[in-house]
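We modelled the chain as a single entity of 123 amino acids. Its sequence is:
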Amino acid sequence: MIETIRISQQAKEQLSRLKRKTGIQNWNVLCRWALVASLRESDPPVHANHGVESNVEMSWRTFAGDTGSLYYDLVRIRCISAKLPLDQDSIDSQFRLHLHRGIAYLSSLPIKSIDEFVKMMTA
């Protein structure tokens, strides 16, 4: 299981903008939305160096709450569909790639309020 989630400095800045736009104050809530947004895309995330890590860090339990096995299994399913190994390194890597892609995607949305955010994410 993934133990600790760290995000890049760029992702931290993107999340900070999202916090201001949506009013959602918790990193973990925004990160959950980001992960799901990326996982619902059919194409795989691009392997990228996300740069310097920020000081934003959370445990898996904080990130996933009571639904940790669901998020973990969703990433595992994506690994299976991409014909990737199911070892911990592959799952960790795919999680990080999807999380960062999702954060970038959410931060690019033309939203100004939580209502707009929810409408775009549930459409």
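As a brief sanity check on the tokenised model: The chain has six helices and two strands. The first strand starts at residue 4 and ends at 8.
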